[in-house]
Design goal:
This protein is an alpha/beta fold. The protein has a single domain, classed as Maf protein (Alpha-Beta Complex). Helix content is about 30%, strand content about 25%. Strands 1, 2, 3, 4, 5, 6 and 7 form a seven-stranded mixed β-sheet that branches. The two termini are about 25 Å apart.
């Protein structure tokens, strides 16, 4: 079985695969991320760019997986904050509101050239946050590598009042969508699970 190469530096994406007992090779993409365009197109376009950048670099047979997560509030795309002040500003905007998290996922089999892609959407409603809540979260997490300046695991579990849709999507890798795309390539996550390595997050 050819290996999965994850074109992402995200430890959360890798952890989601490892929880299934699936070892993924991590090779970080150098592709530039864009925030211009319709949200669905942005998320999928960035995922494709990351996938293709890494696929061009590797010489061995592999399934390359690219992913990109964005936060959308009232049609405004929120990427990763440039600094902690912008992170605080993003959290103030999200406080008490419903927004969408979109993750684009793109896969390619470097042997066959088969490729597939899709986008998962999850609606997330934040609880109302005080300035103290925001400050404590930012100090604890320093969320400069997270779209919308937040995460929903660890300290981030205090931020969210409600989810509608795929929880793993908000973590950065919608597992069912990924499996569906891989099945289209004649692969799949069920067949890759190792009982001796599977674990709970």
């Amino acid at each position: 079985m050819i290996p999965i190469v994850l074109a992402s530096a995200s430890p959360r994406r890798r952890a989601l695969l490892e929880a299934l007992g699936i070892d993924a090779i991590v090779q970080v993409s150098g592709a530039a991320e864009s925030l211009e365009g319709a949200p669905k197109d942005v998320a999928l376009g960035n995922a494709v760019a990351k996938r293709d950048d890494v696929a061009r670099q590797i010489a061995k047979s592999a399934i390359v997986v690219g992913a990109d997560t964005i936060v959308v509030l009232e049609e405004r795309i929120m990427g990763k904050p440039a600094d902690l002040d912008e992170a605080r500003h993003m959290l103030r905007l999200l406080s008490g509101k419903r927004h969408e998290v979109l993750t684009g996922v793109a896969v390619v089999n470097t042997d066959s050239g088969q490729e597939a892609g899709g986008v998962e959407r999850t609606a997330v409603t934040f609880r109302t946050l005080s300035e103290e809540h925001i400050e404590r979260f930012v100090e604890a997490v320093r969320p400069l590598d997270r779209a919308g300046a937040y995460t929903v695991d660890g300290p981030g579990s205090l931020l969210v009042a409600r989810y509608e849709g795929c929880y793993q999507n908000v973590l950065g890798l919608p597992i069912v969508l990924l499996d569906t795309l891989l099945v289209g390539l004649g692969d799949g996550l069920f067949g890759r699970m190792r009982a001796d390595a599977a674990r709970f997050l």
